[in-house]
Amino acid sequence: MIKTRLAKTISILILVGAIFGFAIIFLMRFVDGPVSGKVSSTTLADVKASAAPTPLPAHQLAGLYVALDYPATYDQLAQIKTDKTALEQYDMSPKGDYRQSITVHVAELPSGDPHEDASYRIRELNTAEYRSTVIPGGDRTVLMTKADGSEQTLFVVHKARLLTVAVTSTSTKATAKEIMAIIQPSVRWIQ
């Protein structure tokens, strides 16, 4: 009786194995066929050109006093009030990437002299750490760049107001310079 049960079990296992084997062989006909297609005429130069960086698409911040464009990857925007003297403040960042941020700050500047702003003054006095570039145009505009390239801060004086846009990035996705290249030319005063 044990021998007949054993024989039946072995027979069933052989039958199941044969079915699986034939199924695999049948499916291999479709997988293991000859490769079909055409040879690409794309050259290495074409591939390099297609892999060239493209400009980042932009979102627009339209505040009470200022409007500007910023990268579309920055999908978190918060209006904040950490400075009692600020007319408006915003923080922007890409979701889940703490290595990039944009801070926008608009404040009264009665004298019209950015040297009265502590943030400007700290950067101006720390010449070993920051490089200052005056940007020609209508409003007095100064771009301060940190020596390691991880931060760029834009100061724009308009009438009796100061706009400060601080961009920081230690990410390989976009540098502070690339992000500021979107923001700086798009700054427009509303009031």
Which short descriptors sum up this protein?
4 helices; alpha+beta; 191 residues
Task: Walk me through the structure.
It contains 4 helices and 10 strands; from the N terminus they run H-H-E-E-E-E-E-H-E-E-E-E-H-E. With 191 residues, the protein is α+β, with helices and mostly antiparallel strands. The strands form 2 sheets. It has a 7-stranded antiparallel sheet with strand order 3-4-5-9-8-7-6. Strands 1-2-10 form a 3-stranded antiparallel sheet. The radius of gyration is 31 Å and the shape is elongated. The model has no long low-confidence stretch (mean pLDDT 86).
Overall number of strands: 10
Low-confidence stretches: none
Distance between the termini: 99 Å
Major sheet characteristics: 7 strands, antiparallel
Radius of gyration: 31 Å
Query: What class, by secondary structure content?
Result: alpha+beta
Strand content: 25-35%
SSE pattern, N- to C-terminal? HHEEEEEHEEEEHE
Envelope shape: elongated
Alpha plus pi helix count: 4
Please state the average pLDDT score. Answer: 86
**Major sheet: arrangement of strands:** 3-4-5-9-8-7-6
Instruction: State the share of residues found in helices, binned by percent.
Output: 25-40%
